[in-house]
Amino acid sequence: MTTIKTNACISTLFCIIVVLSTSVRVSSLQCKGEQNQNVDWFVLYKLPRLSDSGNHLIKEGVAYLYMDSESFAKGWTLSEKDITSNDSIPANTLAPFYNDKIAGDLFWVMYNDQPPNQPAKLNNGHTKGVVIAGETEGFWLIHSVPNFPPEPNTGNETRRSNSNKTENGSEEATSKDIPKGIYAYPSSGKVNGQSFLCISTNEANLNTIGKQLMYNQIIVYRRNLPDSLSNKYSVLTDAANQVRIKKAPYNSKINLYSTSGMEFTSFAKSSKWQKDLYDDFVAPQLDTDLYTETWMNGRGKLPSECNKTRVMNIRAISLQKANVEFHSSRDHSKWAVSADEKKKAHWVCIGDINRADTQFERGGGTVCLNVPDVWKNYKDSVEDVEPCPKPKSKGFIDRVKSWFG
Predict the structure, then answer these.
(1) pLDDT at 392
(2) Which of 204, 341, 360, 361 has the fewest CB atoms nearer than 10 Å to its CB?
(3) 325: how many CB neighbours lie within 10 A of its CB?
(4) Which residues are CB-neighbours of 172 under 8 A, at least 6 positions away?
(5) Is there a domain that residue 404 lies in?
(6) 405 domain residue, yes or no
(7) Is residue 161 part of a domain?
(8) Is residue 129 part of a domain?
(9) Which residue ranges does the record annotate as region Disordered (predicted)?
(10) Closest CA to 32 of 78, 81, 70
């Protein structure tokens, strides 16, 4: 009798431990810091590969700087970790996707217009990121890295495109060596700089994120949509199923909140909006001039715009914490920073779309935070900007017309 009771107790205790262990793992659906601790948010700058650097991680193109909700007052920190390693900030944050014991029970979606092991997609959203959610919380990770992150073992693959086109001037748009079921960072992503923003959030904000992703026209390459969570997150489910906005307005600005209540402002546009995100939407709405760092190596580059609120292209970047300087042609990041603080505007925006007329035909967006310490570190990194275009000189006929009003 005693043996039976003992076995029953052991069995019950084991079950309790398993349930609690699973609960802890599932409840940790948050952005991660450098020590794998939960953080409310982080920003991360993967540095370009610079062969003349004395730092071997920078020389190999795998170094990154970061600030998070715990450390931002100190400014940028240069990680001693390799972004390809399993204990890097992106790896720890993305770990739930590759935990086969829990990933199948979670709601998640991966989207990228340059998906791993597939050709690039040249229509719909110029967007890259992941969203994951449990019953009460999750996170949204926005990034600029092609062919990333790898597909998990769980979930379902979405329909592949037969297109073999690549975007002019882009990084290697197709990578066929990305493993499945484990965290990995693509070799194509080492060459240039890359940007990341992660926001831990709760259930109340996940459908708000879903709405923005519908405007962004995300291209989903893998998703997992359990029925119970799909019903709970119906708008996010529509985004994961690639439902598009069918009627005007074709742009959207919303506020969303992190787990701790920090406010972020999200800007999103559909391809039907047919305008520049930064000049026609973000700068006027924030009522501030912007410096923008986006991929300028492709066709259709837009010049600095100075007619109303100024939106000026960054030409060179200096990050003193890493002792590096580089031209924007070496940077695939997508970020913007308010140009001054006269209006107490300490905005930093991180997203996934470029300043180019080719992007008028694409969905995409950016998410902004207003934190003075974060703003100062991005603003101080702006080494050089493209000046405003000189006004065109008037011809003889125009001058004659001006004499008569």
Answers:
(1) 65
(2) 204
(3) 14
(4) 146, 147, 188
(5) no
(6) no
(7) yes
(8) yes
(9) 145-181
(10) 70
Pairing of strands 64-68, 41-46: antiparallel
CB 278 within 8 A of CB 334: no
For 97, what's the count of Cα atoms within 13 Å in the CB-facing half-sphere? 32
Segments forming the whole domain that contains residue 214: 25-385
Locate 213 and state its tokens: 């992703």
Chain position carrying tokens 């905005």: 347
* pLDDT mean across residues, the chain: 90
Length of the chain: 405
pLDDT digit string, tens, across residues 91-140: 999 999 999 999 999 999 999 999 999 999 888 999 999 999 999 999 99
Kind of pairing between the strands at 128-133 and 311-319: unpaired
Task: Spot the catalytic one: 56, 126, 327, 332.
Answer: 332
pLDDT given for residue 390 in this prediction: 79
Report the distance separating Cα 317 and Cα 213, nearest Å: 30
- 346 counts as catalytic: no
Q: Sign of the C-alpha dihedral, residues 20, 21, 25, 26?
A: negative
Nearest alpha carbon to residue 319 among 48, 34, 56, 80: 48
Look at the pTM and tell me if it is higher than 0.85: yes
- Give the count of domains, the chain: 1
Q: How far apart are CA 280 and CA 283, in angstroms?
A: 7
